[in-house]
Amino acid sequence: MFVHGYKAITHNKGPGIDTKNNFRILLQNEFKGLLNKSTKIWINYLLGGAVSALLIWSLYRQVYSQLNHIGTPGFSWAGNTIFLVFALLLMPVNLGLEAYKWKLLADTAQPLNYRKACTSYLAGIAFSIVTPNRIGEYPGRILYLKRKNTLRLISVSVLGAFAQLFAVLFFGVVGLLYYNIAYPGFWEKVLFVVCLGCTIGVIYFYLRFEQWAPKLQKIKWFRKFKTYGQLLKRFSMQDQVNILLLSLLRYLIFSAQFMLLLTWMNVSIPLVSGFLMTTLFFWAMAMIPSVALAELGVRGQVGLFLFNHFSPNSIGILIATFSLWAINLVIPALLGSILLFRMRWLR
Fold first, then answer.
1. Which three-class secondary structure state does DSSP give residue 282?
2. What is residue 147's three-state secondary structure?
3. pLDDT tens digit string along 303-330?
4. Count of domains forming the chain
5. CA-CA distance, 43 to 37, in Å (whole number)?
6. pTM above 0.90, yes or no
7. Would you say 296 and 338 are in contact if contact means Cβ atoms under 8 Å apart?
8. CA dist 324 to 41, 106, 260, 303, 327, Å?
9. Which of 201, 269, 335, 336 is the most buried (most CB within 10 A)?
10. Is residue 2 part of a domain?
11. Alpha helices in 129-219 (DSSP H)
12. What is the pLDDT of residues 169-209, one digit of tens each?
């Protein structure tokens, strides 16, 4: 059938007929005919199953490896499990806030209900576990949505990433100020000045992003992203402030979880000083390059360096760090990996 169709195109070619274009259309039609509905369903299941299995296997290997490193034969603790329960209860609050923030961002590009925002967010976490510093989270969310206006979603993703980055830098400045007072040193002062400058730059760029976007369009490579400026003008200043407040609130929830887990593991730290050191912990984790599946070792070293100032309970610090990682990354990534099994890779 394909050969006859091609002959018909070439032999009946007349003036004004684009043979190459007709041939391309014929190829597309033949391919669509091969990929009937049942075939697409099977391919979707195979692709989704392969991706889900790979991510779940990676999660299992990493958790198993880290538990072996942390585990100490005969170690036990007498911590009150109510602190662990409270930390776990904060997980859906944290996930819900981020899903709501993503809904606010994506709504300016396309209508998105809260349920779809949640599943997209979880899929993004699953994708992020194999990328440096979890940069694959927003691309994963966009890929899961599978919509035509991808450039607009990229725009709002940039805005959301800058809001969360500001939260980390803002509290990082507070933590570094405390550290410079408590443990003064030359490099500590340098880090404080650099972090303060970056924080000012990020918030300026965030609040005036729609003014910077047209300048980016003058660069040849960025011209195809001209929807940046057109889209972000739809955000009012109040919208941007609300997104920023949600990012700051999420940060406080992360900090509360870590404090609860440290208390659960009998790591004795003062409330105010512990919170300020926690802000340094999250700041350091954002600044140090790492892959989510391998970052637990980095988290453990950073946690020991910071919290050993207050407590010699190194095992407790490591387990609290692992628990925070598992609650906020492993469990949501596992849910996201299962969702990817049902994702329609071909439409």
1. helix
2. coil
3. 888 898 888 888 888 888 888 988 888 8
4. 1
5. 10
6. no
7. no
8. 38, 28, 10, 11, 5
9. 336
10. no
11. 137-145, 150-182, 186-207, 209-216
12. 999 999 999 999 999 889 889 999 999 999 999 998 888 87
CA distances from 94 to 34, 98, 118, 155, 289 (A): 45, 6, 11, 23, 24
Euclidean distance between CA atoms 124 and 144, whole angstroms: 8
Instruction: Decide if 216 is inside a domain.
Output: yes
Q: How many CB atoms lie within 10 A of CB 70?
A: 15
In a domain, 18, yes or no: no
Q: What is the pLDDT of residue 37?
A: 53
At 174, the amino acid letter reads: V
Residue where the block lists tokens 């492993």: 330
Domain encompassing residue 337: 39-341
Tell me if 52 is assigned to some domain: yes
Q: Both tokens of residue 102?
A: 């993503």
Note whether 343 and 123 are within 8 A (CB). Answer: yes
Q: How far apart are the first and last CA of the chain?
A: 25
